[in-house]
């Protein structure tokens, strides 16, 4: 089987037997996690369950104690420096706070990954950055503002533009709607859904936002007891684990399900 074919057939992410810890504190224990190509996978769990750490471990920002991680068909432990750099160019990450450089304008922030991974002349680099800024739903004049001059929602969009800079196949979003008002959050969910379909992205989305889960996720992984339970919303609603029952079938879960059903009927 050729490398290209292996790439095509493999899941976007395959994590097997993952253990992570900080000192004596074990965060994940023998955890398996798989994301199919082209799906939107929600990642939920109680506060401190290890959602962000899982995402950061997959993208190589956190060291694992044991286990195997494959991203886009490549075992991340078996890459040369050059291959690792190329693989990193195939995913984009939107961190919780946007993680923008405060001293740079939005345009300059979006140009950072282009400068690091592509050798383009300045004009093309700028044009590509402008396209990503427009794609993220920001007005053109936002390009020349610094992050501190933007609203929270606009900063998220700027972070998204930067995550999309290299035309990634895989997009990681860490609590993309946290801190947004409900209307802003719903708009952001729609944007993620539209981009996912238009660009054929695979998306992994850490979230506490039940509305987002109902609006955009194909499947959901729940981090419980240091491992993952995965399923569609319907499948998880049948899982008897008390945390899952409370989360999906408690008052907020039922309200989100009702809102999603109303939206489907209106569409
Ligand atoms: N760099 C670190 N050093 C030590 N402990 C850490 C570090 N990063 C995370 N942790 C711990 O790992 C655990 C999981 O953290 P993580 O941020 O993944 O939780 P989470 O599920 O994303 O929570 P939340 O929903 O509150 O953001 C927490 O107990 C946290 O304190």
Report on this model:
The chain has 267 residues and is an alpha/beta fold. The protein has helices at 3-9, 51-58, 81-88, 106-117, 122-135, 152-163, 182-199, 210-216, 233-237, 242-249, 251-266, and strands spanning 13-22, 25-35, 40-45, 66-71, 74-75, 91-94, 170-174, 202-206, 219-224, 227-231. It is globular. The protein starts with a helix and ends with a helix. The chain has a six-stranded mixed β-sheet. The longest helix has 18 residues, at 182-199. 37% of the residues are buried. β9 (219-224) and β10 (227-231) form a beta hairpin. α8 packs parallel to α11 (251-266) and α10 crosses α11 (251-266). It has two domains: 3-90 and 168-266, Rossmann fold (3-Layer(aba) Sandwich); 100-167, no CATH class. Bound molecules: adenosine-5'-triphosphate (ATP). Adenosine-5'-triphosphate is lined by residues 22, 27, 45, 47-53.
In short:
It holds the Pfam family ABC_tran. This protein has 267 residues and is an alpha/beta fold. The protein has helices at 3-9, 51-58, 81-88, 106-117, 122-135, 152-163, 182-199, 210-216, 233-237, 242-249, 251-266, and strands spanning 13-22, 25-35, 40-45, 66-71, 74-75, 91-94, 170-174, 202-206, 219-224, 227-231.
CATH topology of the largest domain: Rossmann fold
Top CATH class of the largest domain: Alpha Beta
Are any ligands bound, and if so which?
adenosine-5'-triphosphate
CATH superfamily of the largest domain: P-loop containing nucleotide triphosphate hydrolases
Biggest sheet statistics: 6 strands, mixed
Note the total helix count. 11
Number of domains: 2
Protein name: Phospholipid/cholesterol/gamma-HCH transport system ATP-binding protein
InterPro entries: AAA+_ATPase, ABC_transporter-like_ATP-bd, ABC_transporter-like_CS, P-loop_NTPase
Keywords: ATP-binding, Nucleotide-binding, Transport
Domain ABC transporter: 13-249
């Amino acid at each position: 089987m050729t490398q290209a074919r292996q790439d095509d057939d493999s899941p976007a992410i395959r994590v097997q037997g993952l253990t992570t810890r900080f000192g004596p504190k074990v965060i994940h224990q023998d955890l398996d996690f798989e994301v199919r190509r082209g799906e939107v996978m929600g990642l939920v769990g109680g506060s401190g369950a290890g959602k962000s750490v899982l995402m950061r471990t997959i993208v190589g920002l956190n060291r694992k104690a044991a286990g195997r991680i494959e991203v886009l068909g490549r075992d991340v432990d078996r890459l040369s420096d050059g291959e690792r750099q190329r693989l990193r160019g195939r995913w984009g990450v939107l961190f919780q706070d946007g993680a923008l450089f405060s001293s740079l304008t939005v345009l300059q922030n979006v140009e950072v990954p282009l400068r690091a991974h592509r050798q383009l002349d300045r004009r093309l680099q700028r044009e590509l950055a402008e396209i990503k800024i427009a794609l993220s739903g920001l007005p053109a004049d936002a390009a020349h503002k610094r992050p501190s001059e933007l609203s929270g929602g606009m900063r998220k969009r700027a972070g998204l533009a930067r995550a999309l800079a290299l035309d990634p196949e895989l997009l990681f979003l860490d609590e993309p709607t946290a801190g947004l008002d409900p209307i802003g959050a719903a708009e952001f969910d729609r944007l993620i859904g539209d981009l996912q379909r238009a660009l054929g992205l695979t998306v992994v989305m850490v979230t506490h936002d039940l509305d987002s889960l109902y609006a955009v996720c194909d499947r959901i992984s729940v981090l419980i007891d240091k491992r993952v339970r995965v399923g569609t919303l319907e499948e998880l609603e049948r899982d008897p684990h008390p945390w899952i029952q409370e989360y999906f079938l408690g008052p907020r879960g039922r309200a989100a399900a009702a809102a999603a059903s109303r939206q489907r009927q209106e569409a």
